[in-house]
Amino acid sequence: MSTVSSPIPFIDNLNYLSSPLTDARQVMLRQPELREIEGCFDDLVHSFEFLVSFNGSTATFNSYRREIERLLQWTFMVRQCSLGELRRADIEDYIGFCQSPPPGWIGTSQAARFGNSQEGRMPNDKWRPFVIQPDKSSLSGERPDVFALSQKSLQSLFAVLSSYFNYLIQEDYLQTNPVALIRQKSKYLQRHAYAEPIRRISNLQWDYIRETVDLLARENPKEHERSLFIMLCLFGMYLRISELVADERSSPMMGDFQCDPDGNWWLRVVGKGNKARMVTVSDDMLDALIRYRKHLGLSRLPLPGEQTPLVPKLKGRGAVTSTRQIRYLVQFCFDTAFARMKQEGLEDEAQELRVATVHWLRHTGISEDVRTRPKEHVKEDAGHASMATTDRYINTQMRERHASARNKKLKPEY
């Protein structure tokens, strides 16, 4: 076994897992060289048991699978030992490995771990544990020459692996958590003496995006009336993209739009932690819903319990089930608006759209609303766990701080 060779994936998608014992046996059958490592099979069984406990959320499962898969690959392929032999120094070495993995472990595009064949589910030889993401700030969209683990990725690594080892301790499988001591004296994670600024698009950028998607909807209503509705949901009700697609937690339907006895409209949403909340629907958002339903050939407003998918597929039947599809759609809208702004001479404003992500629409909607609405109301609509999260969107202190420094002189007056 070599650190340079390309690893073979261990863990399939959640809906293809059967039982921890069976799944672990499948790994050992595909990679008989793992039998040389004492304890490897038991490590796999306990890892599968831990992962299937997150069957309530595909997103959480995928996040935990990524970190655990990487650790297991490194433990078996590089250290050639079992989890019980890992100590703090080993985890520190592992973190260094993640910050600079060998070329054979790095891909240039996301690839599925497994695919269907006549023999059943088979590993995809194009899959890699690490992927170099394209540089969104680059005009050419080129990928960096080297892999870099971001601070957010490091935070995820520490959080997931610490939870993982604590689980193994509680199951009486391991005696110690080798990650715990590193977290206490971490030389890897940066601490900020300030709140990270909320990343959002400007009002001018939003005007161009909205106008651009309107034009796209007129030119190609079959495809882009849906695009317009999605963009307005992300901005106007600050939904997360996971709250628009159908998954094992929920299947958003038109009937989730509900009218109360006072004639006020609400949208029932299932968000983070499988928590349901009611989001207020503004008059403008209601008009957008009416327009979209007219395009779909539906009644003006949803009927109670209506089972029409909130975001239907363009081809085939049923609801969109992939957040990636929504991301691509939003990115296309951003890119088209970027091209229009650049063509009209707004070079600087346009460039910021090169690095914008889907989540910026949610940030922008919240940032705008918190200026005029009671923050308690915004908190409930956004599904924030605490007021502290909502308070991050109130940037008056930063604004006042900068205003007080604007007229500072580099040459003091006498």
TrEMBL record:
Ranges that cross the membrane: none
Keywords: DNA integration, DNA recombination, DNA-binding
Protein name: Site-specific integrase
Compartment(s) where it occurs, according to its Swiss-Prot or TrEMBL record: Cytoplasm
Residue ranges constituting the Tyr recombinase domain according to the UniProt record: 199-407
InterPro entries from the UniProt entry: DNA_brk_join_enz, Integrase-like_cat_sf, Integrase_catalytic, Integrase_recombinase_N, Tyrosine_recombinase_XerCD
